[in-house]
DNA sequence: CAACCGCCCTGGGTGC
DNA sequence: TGCACCCAGGGCGGTT
């Protein structure tokens, strides 16, 4: 499951491999992969043919190739999406969804996605708060790695909400890039139970949990970046970081690293929240 | 309008 | 060995 650090690794890889190249043709192998591109597959392919990749950018878990003529190829990897740079003629992957060929006849780009939660669309670029972003994600907030991210503003907005802290951390309109795993890890570091009301958090405590989320992502980025292969732009969450460094996520029944109490799991929004019942008391 | 719920989808894992 | 079932996840549309 690609989180922000893995998406950043993919962004970096794509930057190395596709910037400056011109798309020649695009094959859509599964319509669901472009379901957010409403005009359909023919339009999707037609708009991309002949376009030059100018840059590769990221916000939260969204990734996009900035193209000439004010367009962008926007991607969300979902749970299992991968962007692979493959030699022409390499056997098709079982879950190949979209293939991009380039005018230079060099390595092709493939979107591979087992569970089809991910998807692609061609979109126009708009300027929001001084930054160029695809229209479809104009509402997505800056992530904590963004140089223009403002902790002060996010803390204030978070404390104005009337909801549980974990819901707020997962709200991509407030701060982007934090998923279920990092939310649990950040809450453990800040010693907050997931159901703590946001309107009863001090500014200091809200800042603490935001900083914790940022730290976890930075650490994962440092660990995950090293497994990057020069040829394959790969993302499968196998950075090794998750095996060694998760304090609570998926650790039900194991001792808390701080106090030894068994980590507990509770249902949350049709998924799970992991926490230490001693370090993270309910409000 | 803010908050919240259910659904989308697939395959790996588990228990009978 | 096979089958039914559960679970993972972010975003979005609909409802309260």
List keywords for this structure.
283 residues; alpha+beta; N-terminal domain of MutM-like DNA repair proteins; Helicase, Ruva Protein, domain 3; 2 domains; 5-stranded antiparallel beta sheet; 4-stranded antiparallel beta sheet; 7 helices; elongated; DNA-binding
User: What fraction of residues sit in β-strands?
Assistant: 15-25%
Strand arrangement, largest sheet? 2-3-4-8-9
Assembly form of the protein:
single chain
Helix content: 25-40%
* CATH topology value of the largest domain: N-terminal domain of MutM-like DNA repair proteins
Q: Could you list the spans in which at least 5 consecutive residues all have pLDDT below 50?
A: 225-240
CATH class of the largest domain: Alpha Beta
Into how many domains do the coordinates divide? Answer: 2
Tell me what the CATH architecture of the largest domain is: Alpha-Beta Barrel
Give a short account of the largest sheet. 5 strands, antiparallel
CATH level-four homologous superfamily name of the largest domain: MutM-like, N-terminal
How many helices? The count is 7
Radius of gyration, CA atoms, in whole angstroms: 20 Å
Mean pLDDT: 88
General form: elongated
The termini sit apart by: 31 Å
How many strands in all? Answer: 11
Order of helices and strands: HEHEEEEEEEEHHHHHEE
């Amino acid at each position: 499951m690609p989180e922000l650090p893995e998406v950043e690794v993919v962004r970096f890889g794509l930057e190395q491999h596709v910037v400056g190249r011109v798309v020649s043709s695009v094959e859509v192998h599964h319509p669901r992969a472009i379901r957010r591109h409403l005009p359909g597959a023919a339009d999707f392919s037609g708009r991309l043919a002949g376009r030059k990749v100018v840059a590769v950018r990221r916000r939260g878990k969204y990734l996009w190739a900035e193209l000439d003529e004010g367009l962008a190829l926007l991607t969300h990897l979902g749970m299992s999406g991968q962007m692979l740079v493959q030699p022409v003629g390499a056997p098709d992957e079982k879950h190949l969804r979209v293939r991009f060929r380039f005018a230079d006849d060099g390595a092709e780009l493939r979107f591979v996605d087992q569970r089809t939660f991910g998807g692609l669309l061609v979109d126009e670029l708009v300027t929001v708060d001084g930054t160029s972003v695809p229209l479809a994600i104009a509402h997505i907030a800056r992530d904590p790695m963004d140089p223009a991210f403002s902790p002060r503003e996010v803390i204030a907005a978070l404390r104005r909400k009337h909801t549980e802290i974990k819901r707020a951390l997962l709200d991509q309109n407030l701060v982007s890039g934090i998923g279920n795993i990092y939310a649990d890890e950040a809450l453990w570091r800040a010693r907050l139970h997931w159901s703590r009301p946001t309107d009863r958090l001090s500014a200091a405590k809200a800042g603490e949990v935001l900083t914790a989320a940022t730290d976890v992502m930075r650490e994962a980025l440092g660990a995950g970046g090293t497994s990057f292969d020069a040829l394959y732009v790969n993302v499968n969450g196998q950075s090794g970081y998750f095996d060694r460094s998760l304090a609570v996520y998926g650790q039900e029944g194991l001792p808390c690293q701080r106090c030894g109490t068994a980590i507990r799991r509770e249902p949350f929004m049709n998924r799970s929240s992991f926490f230490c019942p001693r370090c993270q008391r309910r409000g």
